[in-house]
Amino acid sequence: MARKAKAPNPFTGRWRIVSMSAWDQEFIDEEEEGYIEFDQKDNGQFHFGYVHGQMDCCLTTRDGEAAVEWTWDGNDEMDPAQGRGWAIVKDDELHGMIFFHNGDDSEFVAKKAESRKKPKK
What we know:
- The chain is mainly beta.
- It has one domain.
- Helix content is 3%, strand content 58%.
- The protein has one helix spanning 25-28, and strands at 13-20, 35-38, 43-48, 51-62, 65-76, 79-90, 93-100, 105-112.
- The chain has an eight-stranded antiparallel barrel with strand order 1-2-3-4-5-6-7-8.
- The longest helix is centred in the N-terminal third of the chain and has 4 residues, at 25-28.
- The termini are far apart.
């Protein structure tokens, strides 16, 4: 029996965090431009401010729309931190929430980052 081709994952790639409800852009970009990134194998990572996390992701739906949910483990100012999050794609932007276990939470919006491919010579 032939397998169905998997639909392309709308979340795959690097997304530039352009706003968060809990922190301003100066904090988001403190160490480097804030981002969230998803790979093809249900993993990902993010970095904003002094927070960096590795994600274990799961594709799902929210209100009938494609969504991604994740748990994460990482650090906040070099202290261990973990939590969860979710996101949807709406109007070509990534909209979601990130939660710190027993701590802060924030809505976020991110835009697809430009490809970093090197030009051919």
